[in-house]
Amino acid sequence: MKKVKEKLDFMYIRIAKVIEQQILNGALRTGDKLPSLRTICREYGVSQNTALSAYYNLESKMLIETKPQSGYYVRYSKTKVPALPQITKPEAEAHYADSELLVRKIYDGLGEDGHLALALGIPANELLPIAKLNKGLTVAMRELKGSGVMYDKIEGNERLRRQIARWSFAMEGHLNHDEIITTGGCLNALSYCMMALTKRGDTVAMESPISFGMLQLAQVLGVKVLELPSDPQHGIDLNALEDALKANKINVCLFISNFSNPLGSCMPDENKKQTVRLLEKYNIPLIENDLNGDIYFGQQRPKSCKTYDESGLVLWCSSVSKTLAPGYRVGWVAPGKFKNEVRRMKLYHSISSTSVTHEVIAWFLETGRYESHLRKLRHTLHGNMLKFSRAISDYFPEGTMATRPRGGFVIWVELPKAVDAVTLYEKCLRYKISFAPGRIFTLQNQYDNCLRLNYGLLWDEKLERDLKLLGELACREL
To answer: Fewer C-beta within 10 Å: the chain N or C terminus?
Structure first.
């Protein structure tokens, strides 16, 4: 019975994706009438309930709409989608614009009642399987020796590492559990890697704009950051990377390969392969932040740079902090040939990971609950991204541009030059609306008119009203 249900679930998603692709590529245009439910049933050999589920799926993404006593029609319009920003052009030398106070202010506002949490790229509680996680906590405390109060191995929970290794086959990583070290989240994994591979004064190459957490980490460790141009769809500019490598300017690279933060760009698999081969040529390690790789809107998970690593130079970092349980602080790293160095950093700085929460995530992966949760989350986030794109087009100032993420949680918005995002941020706080100004994603004086929005929220009328208000406040700045 369960297999029959899964097959039907797959069929309605398959039908919806076929129609969605026809809409997005222009084969079906705004106002076109869609086939009737009876036609869908006949063409695909499915029940009316399955056909209805496919159309409900498309309605939830605001791609189609129903007209009483008439049928279903295409609602989405490519002309209503904001234009894409241009490739970024950071300066060769960083001026180290100070944004620490602004970052602190954003974090200080977390958890305040009534605030629209557009600032951080994490899912709303309503999108997480909290009841099932609670059940997992009970199971973990019952099964762990001493109910989880003792230290775990330095490498981390073996059950979890085995499940991560199994999970890595989706990106063709082919990892063994002995190659993995668990950590307290992805940023913790990145920290161990940076401490293991760099010393003060070294230069780390990152795409620009880049996550403010990674910039702050670099500043704390006293390393220089070389910001490289990045395409809003395809990520790092490989020509710029090669030029920097030839000039011997880089000691380590730190890239977000899949659905970057804040652009939402995804390096094509061929670019990942070229990047790895290029770094192998110059013997430069790559710390890969693959935090969002599981949140893809296409047919399959994109590969990682680790997929193409033949020399052990890629240190692959990820976690479930953005997809399942932010507060559990469960992450990991496959450090390649630098395992001993990274293991030493973990020993010195934390000794052990948190036993109970890591056991819960191992259980979640092992039982298939994680994949089931991800399927629903991907669907919701894809719909939200399309709705945010529509809202930006409808409510934000004329000339506003925005990225078109194919996965992840965030969308990058480039307002007209006359709008100062920090000033706009201060005004929005009066209305309990918080977003992330573009200035915090760079160490240079740039992106003043840009901002990042988190669409990992529960879409409702209030959210749309607040986005409309945000757009109106931006219009007043012109």
So the answer is: N
What does pTM read for this prediction? Answer: 0.87
210 Cα distance to chain centroid:
12
Beta strands in 229-340 (DSSP E): 230-231, 235-236, 252-256, 286-289, 314-319, 331-334
Structure tokens, 239: 């020509």
Token readout for 471 is: 């757009």
pLDDT (tens digit per residue) in 423-457 = 999 999 899 898 999 999 999 989 999 999 999 99
Distance CA 138, CA 74 (A): 47
| Residues in a beta bridge with 334 | 316
Residue 93: pLDDT band (50, 70, 90) is low
- What tens digit of pLDDT does each residue of 331-374 get? 999 999 999 999 999 999 998 899 999 999 999 999 999 999 99
**Under a CB-based contact definition with an 8 Å cutoff, are residues 189 and 330 in contact?**
no
Q: Read off the pLDDT of residues 101-139 as tens digits, 9 standing for 90 and up.
A: 777 777 766 556 656 678 888 899 999 999 999 999 999
Write the CB contacts of 13 (distance below 8 Å, at least 6 apart in sequence). Answer: 54, 57, 379
**Residues with Cβ within 8 Å of residue 344, at least 6 apart in sequence:** 196
**Residues ≥6 apart with Cβ < 8 Å to 310:** 276, 280
**In the chain, how many H helices and how many E strands?**
15, 17
Please say whether the beta carbons of 135 and 129 come within 8 A: no
